[in-house]
Structure formats: structure tokens, C-alpha cells
Amino acid sequence: MASSLTCAGIVWAFLSFLCAAASCVGFFMPYWLLGSQLEKSVSFGTFRRCSYPVRDESRQMTVMVEQCGRYASFQAIPSTEWRICTVVTGLGCGLLLLVALTALMGCCVSELISRTVGRVAGGIQFLGGKCSCGGGMGM
């Protein structure tokens, strides 16, 4: 297998993949905020939640659903800021993953990544990192 990357490029590709994978796992895991409600441990993130209250209309009371799951719809995300955070963080994760997978393909395919492509990929990766960090800070 021929590579179009230098040794530094190969290290960059693998570190990019590890960071993109960590970012995506963090985005999908519901453990951003931890707390308790109705004497139960609860946690949630921008995309998923665990142990959340639901109104039981048959018994006219609020009960805790003790399972993890995603929000039923985009509108079910608690606030507008939370929705923006979800979109921005998801966009950042997508960009990071796109660059990382392209870089990993560059490890296997000759002449895939030139100096210009590497610079553009670095810029996209920078933008993806800013989106991921900005989405997390906007929370």
C-alpha cells in the first residue's frame, strides 16, 4: 500500500481519527449533565437522555422513565439554545469525521492528499473543532 502522506501526516491522520471518534462518542452519550429528579439519578446531553420524567395521563401523575433514549423529535429538545447546540456540535463532529476518514484513506491510497488538499483538510478540521467546542460551550 502506497501512501501520499509523510510520517507526520500519518500521525496526524490517526490522531484525527481518535479525536473525531471521541468527539462523536461524546456527542451521542447522554452524560453531559448529571443530577437527580424525583429521587432518581438523571443524565442528559444534547442528543440523548436517561431517566426522564413523563406525565402519565391515566394516573394523573408524573412518573420517571428509567431508560436511556434519544429525544422523540427535534422539537422535543428542551430549548432553542439546546437545539442550536445539538446542530452545531453535530456539524462539528461530522466535519471532524469527514477529515479523519479522508486522512486515513490517504494512508492507503497514493496521490490522494496533496499539499493543497492537506491545507484545506486542516482548515475544515479547524472549523469542525471550533464547532464542537463552541457547541459544547454554548450549553
Automatic annotation (TrEMBL):
Task: Locate the transmembrane regions by residue number.
Answer: 87-109
**Domain of life the protein comes from:** Eukaryota
Q: Which residues form the signal peptide?
A: 1-21
What Pfam families does this protein map onto?
L_HMGIC_fpl (PF10242)
Keyword Transmembrane included in the entry's annotation: yes
- Does the entry feature the keyword DNA damage, yes or no? no
Locations listed in the record: Membrane
Topology with respect to the bilayer: Multi-pass membrane protein
> Taking the first listed entry, what is the main subcellular location of this protein, grouped into a coarse class?
membrane
Keywords for the protein's UniProt record, in alphabetical order = Membrane, Signal, Transmembrane, Transmembrane helix
Q: Name one GO cellular component term.
A: membrane
Q: Which InterPro entries match?
A: LHFPL
Recorded protein name is LHPL6 protein
Name its species.
Irena cyanogastra
